[in-house]
Amino acid sequence: MTADECESLVATQIVDAVIEAWSSRQNRILRRAFGHAVVGHNRYAIYASGEGQMYGKTRRDDFTHIGGYEDHGVDMLFAWDPDGDLTGVLLVLPCPSQVDEHRREFSADYWHEVRLELRHRLGKDLSVLGLCGAAGDQSPHFLLYAEQEQEMRERRGLSERQEIAQRVADAVDRALACTSPEDAPCMLQHKWRHLELSPRQISQKERDWSAVALEESVGKGDTDSWWPTGLRRVVETFDGRRESPPVATEIHALRIGDLVLTTNPFELFLDYALRIKARSPARQTLVVQLAGRNMYLPTARAVEAGSYGALPVVTPVGPEGGAELVEETLALIADIYADQ
Predict the structure, then answer these.
(1) What sign results for the dihedral spanned by CA atoms 276, 278, 282, 284?
(2) Same domain, 175 and 75
(3) Which residue numbers in the chain have pLDDT < 70?
(4) Which of 44, 61, 138, 175 could bridge 67 with an S-S bond, Cβ 3.0-4.6 Å?
């Protein structure tokens, strides 16, 4: 199956699911909640030179620190029917579902085990909507403690995905223990904006690195896949042979009661979501990434450290555009609250 065929299949199924959900919608009582579960970890090791490396080794003598913050928050929205029976839960985890990254099969990864565990605990018909929070620099893999974690999983007889599922389900159980349905009016509002974000700035060092990587790719016979195509774009942009226009971006904000869910199309580095959450007027703010098509959006410190995820070849938008995205998202949230 090609990428285009895959996209067509997934898009068709999403549209069918939306139509089915809308046509069969029923009254529900909604209430938000929050908890913690250790799922995602920053995936960059930083060394004494200032260089960063994705999944870098930490046993090196020059290892100094992990590249950034980790967010173990779990945002939740519960749904009950009018009789008070729990029917669904929305969960936002700031971690991509890629415990098993290289299998050539369709998989929900750890979300499959999360659904199984929650349905085992809370009812076989429970609907579980899992969304990926901002996690461009996060991963379910450990740079530190990997051996200890594996040892403890083996003692428990759990896979890595099952371990994550139990942690998430424990967080849901704790939240439900103090969260009951309250049948009160629930405001629902939706707004969106079309943005033109500043394009990624490319340094001489990044241009030269891309030129070398391009030569290596061509030398191996790969001249037109996404990797050499992107590297060529970087070189030509820096050399002035290609324009670098603003990057068209669509963002959304959905208010449900005193909760706001915002979306963006990037693999958004965690710091940007923290800025949005810290300054949002909402009682609880959810930041969901990959709602649309784009690539990584790294922070300034990530760009300085380098490595995959912060290189121009995979980042059409850089820290300047990231700051713009934060401000525009906050403005959109404020716009929703201005209507109350």
Answers:
(1) positive
(2) yes
(3) 340
(4) 44
Closest to 73 (Cα-Cα) out of 93, 53, 58: 93
Specify whether 193 is located in the same domain as 217: no
Contact 209, 303 (CB under 8 A): no
Estimate the crossing angle of helix 270-279 against helix 319-338, to 10 degrees: 30
SS3 233: helix
| CA distance linking residue 284 with residue 224, whole number of Å | 45
CA distance 279 to 219: 49
Q: Do 48 and 129 belong to one domain? A: yes
Q: Other C-beta atoms within 10 Å of 236: how many?
A: 15
CB 70 within 8 A of CB 42: yes
Residue 159 has what pLDDT? 97
**Domain tally, the chain:** 3
196 and 302 both lie in a single domain = yes
pLDDT of residue 292: 92
Task: Report strand pairing: 247-256 vs 296-297.
Answer: unpaired
pLDDT score, position 102: 84
Please name the residue that has the structure tokens 């906050």: 330
Same-domain status, 64 and 129: yes
Tens-digit pLDDT profile for residues 15-46: 999 999 999 999 999 999 999 999 999 999 99
53-68 pLDDT tens trace:
999 999 999 999 999 9
How many angstroms separate the CA atoms of 318 and 321, rounded?
5
Q: How far is CA 113 from CA 6, 101, 107, 163, in A?
A: 23, 16, 11, 9
- Considering the domain architecture, whether residues 149 and 171 belong to the same structural domain is answered as yes
Is residue 90 domain-shared with residue 138, that is, in the same domain? yes
Count of CB atoms situated within 10 Å of the CB of 79: 18
Residue-wise pLDDT tens digits, 198-240: 999 999 999 999 999 999 999 999 999 999 999 999 999 999 9
pTM of whole model > 0.85? yes
Same structural domain, 212 and 339? no
Q: What pLDDT is stored for residue 340 in this prediction?
A: 67
